[in-house]
Design brief:
With 105 residues, this protein is α+β, with helices and mostly antiparallel strands. The protein folds into two domains: 3-74, Alpha-Beta Plaits, CATH 3.30.70.1530; 76-105. The protein has helices at residues 12-24, 59-74; strands at 3-9, 29-32, 50-55, 78-79, 86-87. A hairpin with a 6-residue loop joins strand 4 (78-79) and strand 5. The chain is elongated and about 50 Å long. The mean pLDDT is 84. This is Zinc-finger-like domain-containing protein. It comes from Neiella marina.
Length: 105
């Protein structure tokens, strides 16, 4: 079977989290680029990204699972009124500028 790239993760934690989610759903996922983390500073940053690859036949189901995960993880996010940065719902203070969250804004 041919493998196709599903997603480029922000970091190793996200990649492994999504790989576990897909595995739980019966989708075999392969992580590529994870071993390059030791070369930070030696290789260009764009080469150090961890990618999630799946079988081409499982791509539609994998995309659906990824979209559901992205929707669930973005619920409750808030935008800072001072610097306009997006912040996770669990943050009470903007990670970018330190402004205290005012959820009624």
């Amino acid at each position: 079977m041919s493998k196709v790239r599903l997603y480029q993760a922000a970091n190793s934690i996200e990649a492994n989290l999504l790989s576990g989610l897909l595995s739980h759903c019966g989708i075999a996922a392969e992580l590529r680029g994870e071993a390059l983390g030791g070369a930070i500073g030696e290789l260009p940053a764009d080469l150090l990204q961890i990618e999630i690859w799946v079988d081409e036949q499982q791509l539609p189901e994998a995309k659906q699972q990824l979209e559901q995960w992205q929707q669930q993880s973005s619920q409750g996010n808030w935008q800072c009124s001072q610097c306009q940065e997006q912040n996770p719902a669990s943050f009470d203070q903007c990670w970018q500028c330190g402004h205290i969250a005012n959820r009624s804004e």
